[in-house]
Amino acid sequence: MSTATHSLVEVRPDIINRELHLQIKLLELQDLLKQTQHEPRLKGPFPIKLYRSILASLQTILDKLHSMRCVTTREEWYVNPWLLEHQFHPTWPAQVHGEIEY
After folding, report:
1. b/e per residue, 60-77, with b = 16+ CB within 10 A?
2. Chain centroid to CA 13: how far?
3. Considering only CA atoms, which of 52, 49, 58 is closest in space to residue 22?
4. CA-to-CA distance for 66 and 21, rounded, in angstroms?
5. Residues 55-74: pLDDT tens digits?
6. I want to staple 78 with a disulfide (CB 3.0 to 4.6 A). Which of 5, 19, 37, 97 is the partner?
């Protein structure tokens, strides 16, 4: 295994734990937001819609970061010698159609 694979294996549980922690905190905040309608407030009603949209945006960001981590830490990208040697990128039309010789 390459050193890149070793470092990914070591870092990955820590990243997963952080993601889980953030997800739990977002869920807790959503529960607290539901309870704000029952709390008395001197300044008028609590802006629930604003904070609900903020929490939804944070959830979207967390989901996208999770997806990026899943894609970029796939073991195949680091242990497949052919990918490392040829740096194959399917978005390059010449490589997809076999117009480039290696």
Report:
1. eeeeeeeeeeeeeeeeee
2. 14
3. 58
4. 13
5. 999 999 999 988 888 877 77
6. 5
Q: How many angstroms separate the CA atoms of 58 and 80, rounded? A: 35
Which pLDDT belongs to residue 44? Answer: 86
For the chain, where are the E strands, in sequence order?
Answer: none
CA distance 4 to 8: 6
Euclidean distance between the first and the last CA atom of the chain, given in angstroms as a whole number = 24
33: its two tokens: 């937001």
Q: Which two tokens stand for residue 74?
A: 């796939």
- Measured CA distances, 85 to 9, 40, 78, 96 (Å): 22, 64, 11, 16
